[in-house]
Amino acid sequence: MIPQQLAEKVLFIYDKAINKALAQKAKNKMYFKAEKLRAYRHCDNVWTFLMERVDFRDSIRVNRVKFVACDGSAKLATS
């Protein structure tokens, strides 16, 4: 098992790298429409949306989906 401090550092570096890669390389946009928004929350700068009967444009339809979104701006990232 790796030490907790090392695990946290690895996750932090991974988060920074994936955010940078998505910002630079991902050009796709996804559109969705839900029949029902069951709940939404904002806590510690994290949004969570719980929706039912969601249609994704040109993609798939799912019965239920949960989104969690965090502010990935550089001003919040600390090392």
Automatic annotation (TrEMBL):
Gene Ontology MF: a single term: translation initiation factor activity
**Where is this gene product found?**
Nucleus
**Mind telling me which GO cellular component terms the entry cites?**
transcription factor TFIIA complex
Q: Which GO terms describe its biological process?
A: transcription initiation at RNA polymerase II promoter
Signal peptide location in the record? none
What residues form the membrane-spanning segments? none
Q: Where is the Transcription initiation factor IIA gamma subunit C-terminal domain?
A: 36-72
Query: In its keyword annotation, does this UniProt entry include Transcription regulation?
Result: yes
Q: Supply the InterPro entries for this chain.
A: TFIIA_a-hlx, TFIIA_b-brl, TFIIA_gsu, TFIIA_gsu_C
Keyword list, A-Z: Initiation factor, Nucleus, Protein biosynthesis, Transcription, Transcription regulation
Q: What protein family is recorded?
A: Belongs to the TFIIA subunit 2 family.
Query: What's this protein's name?
Result: Transcription initiation factor IIA, gamma subunit, beta-barrel domain protein
Which species is the source of this protein?
A: Ancylostoma duodenale
